[in-house]
């Protein structure tokens, strides 16, 4: 079994002054940390789900600038609940000794009106660490992780589309 390591997030949130919806993951995976951007595991369905949920003409964006552009163009901020923690590999279930992200960096600069969490771990961590700061309840969405095999791409896209479009109204 992998050893615990104390790891700092390592890259910045995506947002600007027009961001209205904040999407939060828990903490970057090993591949995301190596790629220095969100959802860097090619098997993670996040980028494909978000692009399809928003009705984008193009398939999932491929490079970091295209991914950042998609989010900002649509008023979506993206970050993780945890700034640093002890973790084994990419296992959300192993996260301990949490230092929460300074979510006020985003909520103080952008008119965030909805918070969506990518998976149950992100939602639990948000509720514990960040909801008292933002004063906003979060909607937990099914994880786009490849570990969430119970949700097909179609079901994920339908559920995420429903939540994103309602939040962006």
UniProtKB/TrEMBL annotation:
Top-level taxon in the UniProt lineage: Bacteria
Catalytic activity, EC: 3.2.2.15
Residues of the Uracil-DNA glycosylase-like domain: 12-165
Pfam families: UDG
InterPro entries tied to this protein: Hypoxan-DNA_Glyclase, Uracil-DNA_glycosylase-like, Uracil-DNA_glycosylase-like_sf
Keywords for this protein: Glycosidase, Hydrolase
Keyword Hydrolase attached: yes
Single GO MF annotation: DNA-deoxyinosine glycosylase activity
Name of the protein described by the UniProt record: DNA-deoxyinosine glycosylase
